[in-house]
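Narrative progress, year one. The postdoctoral researcher (J.K.) led the effort to move from monomer predictions toward full complexes, under supervision of the PI. The following entry was the first complex the group processed end to end, covering 891 residues in total.
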Amino acid sequence: MAAPKSVAHDIVASGQRAAARSDSSAGDKTRSATFSVWRGAADGGQLRDYTTAVSEGMVILDAIHQIQSESANDLAVRWNCKAGKCGSCSAEINGQPRLMCMTRLSDFDLDKPVTVEPMRAFPLLRDLVTDVGSSFRQKKRIRKFTPRAPDAPDGTWRMNQADADRVQEFRKCIECFLCQDVCHVLRDHHLHEEFVGPRLLVHAAQLEMHPLDALDRVTDLKESHGIGYCNITKCCTDVCPEHITITDNAIIPLKERVVDRHYDPIAKLVRLLRGKRSQPEQEPSR
Amino acid sequence: MAEYQTHEHDVLVIGAGGAGLRAAIEAAHSGASVGLICKSLLGKAHTVMAEGGVAAALANVDDRDSWKVHFADTMRGGQYLNNWRMAELHAKEAPDRVRELEAWGAVFDRTEDGRILQRNFGGHKYPRLAHTGDRTGLEMIRTLQDYATYQPVDVHMECTVVSLLKDAGRVAGALAYDRERGRFKLFAAKAIVLATGGIGRAYNVTSNSWEYTGDGHSLAFNAGAALQDMEFVQFHPTGMVWPPSVRGILVTEGVRGEGGILVNKDGQRFMFSDIPENYRSSTADNEEEGWRYTQGDKSARRPPELLTRDHVARAIVREVREGRGSPHGGVFLDISWIKSKLPNGPEHIRKKLPSMYHQFKQLADIDITAEPMEVGPTTHYVMGGVRVDGDTQMSSVPGLFAAGEVAAGLHGANRLGGNSLSDLLVFGQRAGKYAAEFAGRQASPRVDAGEAEAMTRTALSAFGRDGASAENPYQVQHDLQTMMQELVGIVRRGEEMQRALDALALLKARAATVAVTGNREYNPGWHTALDLPNLLIVAEAITRSALERKESRGGHFRDDFPDKDPAYAKFNIVVRRGANGEIQVAREPLTEIRADLKQIIEENK
């Protein structure tokens, strides 16, 4: 037997240490805490304080649910998986854009009220729920995934893991829209029509760097998606719960492609001499 | 008089997880006008939680795999109560459905030679699960969502159906409300596909989100369709157990597929001591062989941690009950030990199981590359659901189709991991196709405005109530969940389930008195109140079916009948709505399996 008993005993010892540590780090068994929660609709609202009992390991969403079932049955909140995978419960907690389900109460000083507000860059529907529909509508403007012809006679493709990894970073986006919430182009300047925002630039990046995709969206990025508005303050990267390096890995490489295509005089000259069009391809059929 | 908007579609798909999206896409391909209703925002459905992978006999990693082996594995896992036709179609068509996803932009992990990589999973003889790290469900739903974005599909987000309408025996439409404003929407449709997922919220320890309240099960039941196999609820063996607020969140079977082991507090790998007879020849009898299996050694047999979910879940319950559990009432699941085998162990774990690493780090302060996790069973999936035709997915109500978790048949008494994502694709596609075909043969149905009016009044009735006897909807839901967990959970007894029926009668009376505060705009209290009747129906269907099956098989385990009884291998338990709304239970004999399929099962025993 190659995994000898000692391995299993190490596991138990380590597990018991971890359990004990987790018990003590969770702090007080139970105490009460106050949450200032935004209540109201588009026509106005205010922060309202709710006090509820909290216990070890709780996250903000647990507290909100508890308040909802105890004293504010109609408190509007969006959530689904409660495990950081669906990106529904985005909010601003003490001013920081976070997922409520992945934000532990132990991160806060519970002697002071914790404020929970909706994402401010989106139109408010009610309480903690905002209208994020624009991000769904904008997606249609980005031209769809269009694969090159299959590599093998059986209609399948070959791809290296390294190439897959590059786009998997972008494809792990859970569409929580926290990046859109902090993007000052959207939040402060309200250029929702002109600029698709970081989430959709990540989407465009996964398409542009997709090992199988055959379309070219570089001119679209400049002309219709407004990539020039982004001045790489990296606020989006800071808030991404999936730790996608939005600015460095998605947006900057796209900007470089735009620059190479549209602003590099030497490349322009070469293209001119070779008589090559900048938008060569037709959309391959589905 | 309540007002409503009206919409008309050839095919209306209710539910926008994997099955619903796939059905909507297929119906649109067929030229039907399609409406797609999702209870949440698009792309947030429970499919997003699926981690391990999608089962398909691509044979990219082990060329001995084929649809026949996949078929035999699925039937064995389901203890032969499966609809064999569905198991056959599923095994045959899953590879095409997976390859099609790649053509639509999905990026799966790769083999050395650049093809789709496949991993081991419980009950699958060969490495069969195409996957994207441990977030395969997200990859799949996003691919389908993005693809559907460019199809002529009208999406109705944050919209919940409260009732179906019929016209002369066939389905005619649905009444729904939108969450945002609380307005009613009346849908007229020639065919309807239910793709509403499961019933996990009938229990209090569950991996399922708030949406999984058995809506489709209840809609079908109330419309007169038969439900079958409702006693078979899958308790996934590995949910988080600590801290309390995350109890039930899923820990992917992929952890065990990558070499993770289950250990009790005495340091024993207890799964080795309890290998069922029908899996003995295919299960490793020593740790070394089990490890080699997880690392792709084709001559090795699988470790007992990868036995079927029902079996592993019960073994964990036994360890805990007999005092060998971990500090917080689970057992240890350890993947960190593989660093004694692989020099880059921690990095390998983070690469293969990134979201598990993240989930434990953030929610439980546990570094899974260095420490074991504590895990225990969590309500995960219902094998039971709408009884459908294996080829078309149509229910016993003309024009009403069901696909995915809400449909029954493919998984029999127990579902194998990875067979859900493939189920969604294969039968989502079929339901969409046959619903469009059915719609093409129909004239526009007539929806009865008076009936719709009455439904809106019922849906609004909780607003008018108040006074001392009024109930809080969240409290009723919570009490229902606790009761079901205790009395109709993973280990069942006849006497306890009788008590559950009494409790359900009381809960039903309480649900009729819930009061809702506030107005109709995005009011979760109201939504919870409207979900209650659905939960009550599925809870009762589960309990009555479980009482009827006086044996233990697959996901259904009875302490008072702990053995499998061959007499119960001959029928499915089916429930239907009686004339007064009561639940009627019947035994429907299985259809004789085709000779060639029977032979495949024999050859793979």
